[in-house]
TrEMBL record:
Record's protein name: Transmembrane protein 42a
Keywords: Membrane, Signal, Transmembrane, Transmembrane helix
Gene responsible for this protein: tmem42a
Record bears the keyword Cytoplasm: no
Listed transmembrane segments: 63-85, 97-117, 123-143
Signal peptide positions on this chain: 1-22
Presence of the UniProt keyword Protein transport in the record: no
Species for this entry: Chanos chanos
Amino acid sequence: MLPGVIYALLAGFLGAIASSSAKLSLGADYLKGVCETGMKIWAGERTIITREFETTPCEWLHIPLRLLCGGLLFTCNAVMWTFFAKALRHSSSSARVTVTTTASNFISSAFLGHLIFGETHATLWWVGISLTLSGLLILHGSTPRDPQQEAKKHK
């Protein structure tokens, strides 16, 4: 049962990375801003201008970064579904796997959103995730039913 939980947690985390990668690849302004901030820090507050085109390197550098994030999106999704399938194979309950993956995804998304994008969540969001985690604990605390014992009960 433990490998199933680990695979489910990893699947949720990879799903959160994939969604963050999608947000980065589709939002050009954010990557351009990060690039410009990084260039200022790296160049020591000097403006770097390419004389030939009179543009900063960030005008074109965000495009390969967006493509890289797009590739990360598809890679993380593929690995996430692989781990989810392995979690289903190693677990006695598909409900446990689904709830564990969902909870892992929500929590990972919250931390990645705060870390990467500076997002904050309302109290209601945290109440909802707490209810989800409570349901997860109840599901993990229950014992799976043995089909042979159930058949004997009904005879």
